[in-house]
Amino acid sequence: MTESHRLALEKLRNLDIDNSDVIALIICGSLACGKERSDSDVDCYLVHTDDAFGEVKRKKTFFYGTWNPEEFFGVSIDGKIVSMDFLRKAVTDASEPTRASFIDAYALFSRNPDIDSLIRQIAVYPDHDQFRRARAFYSYVKITVMSGKRRTPSGMISGIATVSSNLSSLPVALYLHTTGACSPVIRLCIASLRSVPRYPISSSNGRRTCYSRFHLMR
Fold first, then answer.
1. Hey, what's the torsion of the CAs at 23, 27, 29, 32, to 10 degrees?
2. How far apart are CA 19 and CA 29, in angstroms?
3. Do 89 and 122 form a contact (C-beta atoms < 8 A)?
4. pLDDT per residue over 95-140, tens digit each?
5. Number of domains, the chain
6. Does one domain contain both 142 and 118?
C-alpha cells in the first residue's frame, strides 16, 4: 500500500466514523486483496443503518466517493452506499460479482459486531446455487443455439428468454399451450425448459408451479 492510499483510507475513516447513520466502511477490491497498483482506486461499501438508507434510496444517491483524486491525495474513491439489510440478504442471494467483491474485504471501522461475519459469509459461493445457475445457463445456451439454427433474430431469443424467466402464473402457460399462440421460438423455449427440470428455480412457488405444468404439456 502506498502512502497516498494510507492517507486516503485514513481520511475516509475520519469522515464517517462519528456519523450515527453509518455502521461500517468496508474496503474491498485490489487494495483489500493486496494487489493494488500505485494508481489503483479505493473500492468500498459504506454501510448505512436501514433507516438512513431509506433516504439514500429516495434520493438515489448510492454513489460514495469522488471523481477528483486530489481530494484524497491523488487516489480515486469508488464506493457504494448499502444497508445492513443488503448485507444480510447478500449472504444467500448475492450475485457472483457481489460475492467476488467481498473476497478479502475488511471493515475499516465498524459499530456492529456482525459485520466481519457477514463479510466472510458473502464471499463464500454456495455450492447449491452454483449448480442451479449452471443449469440455468445451459438452458439459455440451448435456446440460443437451437434457435440460431432456425435463423431466428438474436433479439427475439433474448426477449423470449426474458419472458420465460419471468412467467409467474399457470394461466399464462395454459393460454400459450391451449390457444396455439406459441411461435416456433416460444415452443422451442418451452421444450428447452422441459429438458432442464426446475429451470429457472425461483423463490416463487407460483413460478415453480408454472414450469412444472410446462413439463407436463407434452
1. -140
2. 24
3. no
4. 888 998 999 999 999 999 999 999 999 998 776 666 666 666 666 6
5. 2
6. no
